[in-house]
Design a protein that fits this description.
Layout: E1 2-13, E2 20-31, E3 35-39, H1 46-53, E4 61-66, E5 69-70, H2 75-81, E6 82-85, H3 97-107, H4 112-125, H5 141-153, E7 159-163, H6 171-188, E8 191-195, H7 199-205, E9 208-213, E10 216-221, H8 223-231, H9 238-245
Parallel strand pairs: 3-8, 3-9, 6-7, 7-8
Antiparallel strand pairs: 1-2, 1-4, 4-5, 9-10
Helix pairs in contact: 3-4, 8-9
Bound molecules: adenosine-5'-triphosphate and magnesium ion.
């Protein structure tokens, strides 16, 4: 069953220097329970796509449904179904971890006791126990990122959008986050739509990869498919496939000696 389906989804930004076609027509179907890695070079249109699918940014073209709700006709339904962890979290530094989580839960209509319970569960799950009463401004980068993820999970969304969730995390915390994503999917059937620039992460975690470049999809398949098709075999490094797909050669660039 498709939980996300888009047709010609597009976004052009107006800027003083002229229009920027950030997303130029994305046709995509995501199955319920899939872990989808949405990859692409800087500026490819990943964050713009996530912001449209979570109703934070209106499309300038195309259509989409998320968890059965039409993006344009029922944005409130889409919002209820989605959790979104932005590329850079914007949070009030003066409140505590607990207050931040409870406020987020209340926004999604949890009662106060439900929100408080959920905040305790998630901080335990995400290795943030003992930090509930800390001001968010005192958290380390990795703790901050885990709090962002807890925020996205407060209302048990059907679809979780994670924009570069592990940037800045230490290797142990990254591995914990992979486990968490797998557990959320296994326990709740949650669909996970994630972007990352760590190709080892995409390879290990995603069932399927969609690669975008300059606002369009340029490849779609399982990690093994893409490596076989673009890098010579299912055991090749995903980076080789990624570089071939996005037209950046993996071979060393023109290696003329440099005069020193
Ligand atoms: N508000 C805006 N106004 C003008 N241009 C924008 C705006 N937001 C994004 N863009 C442009 O749209 C393009 C796509 O940006 P987007 O943030 O979606 O890329 P991305 O794939 O998430 O990149 P990264 O890997 O660097 O996070 C970029 O060229 C960016 O400069
Ligand atoms: Mg981005």
């Amino acid at each position: 069953m498709a939980i996300i389906s888009t047709a010609g989804l597009a976004r052009t930004f107006r800027s003083k220097a002229g229009p920027v076609e950030a997303v130029r027509g994305i046709d995509l179907t995501v199955r319920a329970g899939e872990i989808l890695g949405f990859l692409g070079p800087n500026g490819a249109g990943k964050t713009t796509t996530l912001r449209m699918l979570t109703t934070l940014l209106p499309p300038t073209g195309g259509a989409a449904t998320v968890a059965g709700h039409d993006l344009l006709r029922d944005p409130a339904g889409v919002r209820r179904a989605c959790g979104y962890v932005a590329q850079s979290g914007g949070v009030d530094p003066n409140i505590s971890v607990r207050e931040e989580l409870v406020t987020q839960g209340r926004l999604y209509r949890l009662t106060k006791p439900q929100a408080a319970l959920r905040a305790r569960e998630l901080t335990n799950d995400l290795g943030l126990h003992g930090l509930l009463d800390r001001k968010t401004s005192t958290l380390s980068g990795g703790q901050r990122r885990r709090l962002d993820i807890a925020m996205g999970l407060m209302h048990r969304p059907e679809v979780l959008f994670l924009d570069e969730p592990t940037t800045g995390l230490d290797p142990g915390s990254r591995a914990d986050l992979w486990d968490l994503v797998r557990r959320i999917r296994a326990d709740h059937g949650t669909t996970v739509f994630l972007t990352t620039h760590y190709l080892d992460e995409a390879d290990a975690l995603a069932d399927r990869l969609v690669i975008v470049d300059k606002g369009v999809i340029v490849a779609d398949g399982t990690p093994a498919d893409l490596k076989s098709r673009y890098a010579g075999g299912p055991d090749a490094p995903l980076q080789d496939a990624f570089l071939a797909i996005t037209g950046r050669s993996a071979a060393p660039q023109d290696s003329a000696p440099v005069a020193v």
